[in-house]
Amino acid sequence: MTISVSTRQVVGPEDAARRNTQALRDGFVIEELFRPGEIILTYSHLDRMIVGGVAPVSGLLEIDHVAETGTERFLDRREAAIVNIGGAGTVSVGGRDHALGFQEAIYIGMGEGVLGFKSNDPAEPALFYLLSAPAHRACPTVHISRDMVKKVSLGSAEESNARTINQYVHPDVCESCQLLVGLTMFEPGSVWNTMPAHVHDRRMEVYLYFGMQEATRIFHFMGEPNETRHVVLKNHQAVLSPGWSIHSGAGTGRYAFIWAMAGDNMSFTDMDKVPMETLR
């Protein structure tokens, strides 16, 4: 079994404004998350968020000790959320199995022990997307079915951004320390996410784009509102967003994305909206 971990240091707005395309990608884009039979983790110094992809095929993959956390076990001082965006599979938490179908999730509280991952069918393997942040107390582990999520409709067809936000790890769904996680789906013909843009200096965010055709691309906009940059992303790529940066994108075809946040508060609506005339 292979677990690979990369570390991303914090990039400030002045530095980001001077970076070329490859340097922006080096600082913010997670190019590869899912490799068959492996666990790939990215440790970000933005609120110590860990972003990972677990892709079991025929055997069991486990996360126990991750040296970058400085603890004996991965979850000793952390909470985690896992969303399955592949075939049916099982996540074991401290030896207890939880079956996860497509777009089902599980929130895992601090101190829960070893995590195990299996696919039900190697021909249709599960793809487990993992988010983890430091925690200060133990919250109950909760299996989150698609029926449990809180749905919020936003946008309009006229603005090409009609979408439904499915809130998975959210105070109205399950208790957590600082993680907030959701999945956004679009109405046919809508391509814009999170526009008009906003920032929230109280917490960081990470987007995972998925559900895309091979040739589909996302033009993801980032940077300070008056000094924007962009990166181009394909299916199963993620992008880190510091509190000072906007995070918005448009796709050339149908897509969905999972957003996750960690930081100072649990209020989903805590954001500083950016007027369109401010964007540069």
Notable characteristics:
seven-stranded antiparallel β-sheet, mainly beta, single chain, Jelly Rolls, 280 residues
Write the layout of secondary structure elements.
Layout (H helix, E strand, L loop, with lengths): L1 E7 L4 H6 L2 H8 E2 L7 E7 L5 E5 L6 E3 L14 E7 L4 E5 L2 E5 L4 E4 L6 E5 L8 E7 L7 E3 L5 E5 L8 E7 L10 E7 L5 E2 L4 E2 L3 E8 L7 E7 L2 E7 L3 E5 L6 E4 L4 E8 L8 E2 L7
Parallel strand pairs: 1-3
Antiparallel strand pairs: 2-21, 3-4, 4-11, 5-10, 6-9, 6-11, 7-8, 7-10, 9-12, 13-14, 14-15, 15-23, 16-22, 17-24, 18-21, 18-23, 19-20, 19-22
In short:
The protein has 280 residues and is mainly β.
Structure description:
The chain is mostly beta strands. It has a single domain (2-278), classed as Jelly Rolls, CATH 2.60.120.10. The protein is 5% helix and 44% strand. It contains two helices and 24 strands. The radius of gyration is 18 Å and the shape is globular.
Overall, the morphology is globular
What is the count of structural domains?
A: 1
User: Can you give the mean pLDDT?
Assistant: 96
Instruction: Tell me the fraction of residues in β-strands, as a range.
Output: 35-45%
- Would you list the SSEs in sequence order as H and E? EHHEEEEEEEEEEEEEEEEEEEEEEE
Q: Please give the CATH class.
A: Mainly Beta
Distance linking N and C termini:
46 Å
Number of helices: 2
Number of strands: 24
Helix and strand composition category: mainly beta
Low-confidence stretches: none
CATH superfamily name?
A: Jelly Rolls
Q: Examine the coordinates and then state which fold CATH places here, giving the name of the CATH topology.
A: Jelly Rolls
The largest β sheet comes out as: 7 strands, mixed
CATH architecture: Sandwich
Biggest sheet strand order reads 1-3-4-11-6-9-12
Question: Whole-number radius of gyration?
Answer: 18 Å
> Helicity range of the residues?
under 10%
